[in-house]
Amino acid sequence: MSHDAEEEETPPATPTTTAGKDQEEETWNLQKQALIRELSQKLINGDLQAKIEAARDIRKLVRKSSVKTRSKFGAAGVIQPLVSMLSSPNLDAREASLLALLNLAVRNERNKVDTVTAGAVPPLVELLKLQNSGLRELATAAILTLSAAAPNKPTIVASGAAPLLVQILGSGSVQGKVDAVTALHNLSTCKENSIPILDAKAVSPLINLLKECKKYSKFAEKTTALLEILSKSEEGRVAMTDSDGGILSLVETVEDGSHVSTQHAVGVLLSLCRSCREKYRELILNEGAIPGLLRLTVEGTSIAQERARILLDLLRDTPKEKKLASSVLEKIVYDIAARVDGADKAAETAKRLLKDMVQRSMELSMNRIQHRAASCTPANIPSA
């Protein structure tokens, strides 16, 4: 069942002149205005069955409509009665109103805000608690859509929706999980938050989702952003190391992720190592993190490069006063390049040399991993 708005609305196409087209469009607009008034009246004054039918008709009309049509429905007063239907004991009424509200809110900021102002969030939170997976995931999609409007975020955060969205991360359908992650990501940017919206219970399902998704995807970017938030608490950090394959998934994201997801992933690893170097250093090194971090010092965003340099220093097994900082290494390589190819080509040569070093380091790291895997007994190899 699709809840996304589709293409912009156009009147029925028939071969005609320019004047004929204008007349046809005007006729279509008048018909549409009459239909909006008729459906609004049914929704406001009709019995329950009439309201359900009106809500379904609104959803059908709005799905392929322009923003202007959504605005006209909002101005006609349909949002409040649709919100009231969300609390109906009749499940058909709940579903019909939910789908109508969802489609009215897509691509329409005013309708998003008006829907929350009309009191939609508490009944949506109740729908998130239902065993009915269809309604629960439609409610998740609605929370996602409404949370895209900044004025709505404090109300949704205060409603207690976040822990229920976390439950969907572990038990929902694929679409439900995607919607829940995106909604949580939207809510995490709420500047009015005085307390974190996530706790350590979110770590395990987020790690599992990160393991399964493409590391360069938008989904991975949102997932790693949430994990970076969670890495700022001790409970979150412990949960990451307790999650099977947690650190490995973050290392893989550093290696294969987009600029955004690598920045978040290295941020998580740095947060771990800064909190307790003795505890996390070996865990990170054992997953072969060095090659990806070296590459990140050359190819990442400025923030990711800085984080990678700091983390590499923390991972080195030398006393603090003898650490060779990444910036020093880069200067040495630059000086060598300048002597070989001259100052005008030094930067390009240095970058190529650093990439060669990264590649060689990756090959050595892979050899070590293969050697370690070959030395494992079957009992030591985790099952798929």
Automatic annotation (TrEMBL):
Transmembrane segments: none
Region annotation Disordered: where it falls in the sequence: 1-25
Keyword Mitochondrion: no
Biased composition (Acidic residues): 1-10
Keywords attached to this entry: Repeat
Organism field: Hibiscus sabdariffa
This protein's record includes keyword GTP-binding: no
Name of the featured protein: U-box domain-containing protein
Record InterPro entries: ARM-like, ARM-type_fold, ARM_PUB, Armadillo
Database matches in Pfam families: Arm, ARM_PUB
ARM repeat residue numbers: 77-119, 119-161, 160-202, 201-245
Residue span, U-box domain: 180-327
Gene3D superfamilies per record: Leucine-rich Repeat Variant
